[in-house]
Amino acid sequence: PRKKVELYQIIPQTFVIGAQTISIIVLSALFVGSVLAIQGNYILGMFAATDQLGQFVALSVLRELGPVITGLLFIGRSGSTITSEVGIMKLTDQMNALKSMKIDISKYILYPRFISSIISLPLLTMLFNAFAIVGAFAVAHYSLHLDTGLFLISINRYVSFKNDVITGLLKTLFFGVITATLALYYGINTTKSASGVAEASTKTVVYSSIAILLCDYILTSMLMRLW
Predict the structure, then answer these.
(1) Sequence ranges of the domains in the chain
(2) Which DSSP string do the residues of 81-116 spell out, in sequence order?
(3) CA–CA–CA angle 123, 179, 60 (5° rounding)
(4) pTM attached to this predicted model
(5) How far apart, in Å, do the first and last CA atoms of the chain sit?
């Protein structure tokens, strides 16, 4: 029965951590894609290469901007939420109550949030990638009046599912582990005060952001040898 409780906890946690972040992800992606299209059109226009705008946008989003921006948004929305929830549980002695009932808090509280983070971040990144490209496509067609056929052809020709899509999503697995680990760590180790919970949430956002940017640099340096 205890294992059922643990599995049951993953579903609501995935909703809280992932599903409630969708609106932020979609809106941000549309704006990022739109700006990329405008900037890309300007830069490529200097080289008479605006027919490569689709490639420019897709590779920028899939390799870097999608994973990193989604990771940072995830930290601000979900990482801080995890820390606050766990910190408040500690503040109100809910953890001690669970321990007194011989319930393993790692399996009941920590693992579901950890697993949900790892599940949610790649899915949110795929959503971000899709809407960023849609946003760029819309701007290219309605604002820049470019040939959208060439836009799509350049994506199809130059974007590799393995080297671009998969490697970008691979980064998000690392980002999810980093964010969940730090969020849970600072939540568990928060001081028993309201200011302590706020401070722990701030630490989660700051240190997780730095950590995933550093992780992105390391992973990109390694993956560039494969591209």
Answers:
(1) 2-223
(2) HHHHHHHHHHHTTHHHHHHHTT--HIIIIIHHHHHH
(3) 55
(4) 0.92
(5) 47
Give me the helices (H) in the chain, please. Answer: 2-17, 22-45, 53-60, 66-74, 80-91, 94-100, 105, 111-138, 148-158, 167-188, 194-223
How many other CB atoms sit within 10 Å of the CB of residue 104? 13
The pair of structure tokens assigned to 161 is 């599912």
Give the list of residues 6+ apart from residue 50 with CB closer than 8 angstroms, or none. Answer: 41, 44, 146
Residues 10-42 have pLDDT tens digits of 888 888 888 889 999 999 999 999 999 999 999
In a 13 Å sphere around the CA of 167, the CA atoms on its Cβ side amount to 21
Q: Give which of 168, 167, 170, 208 is closest to 79, Cα–Cα.
A: 208
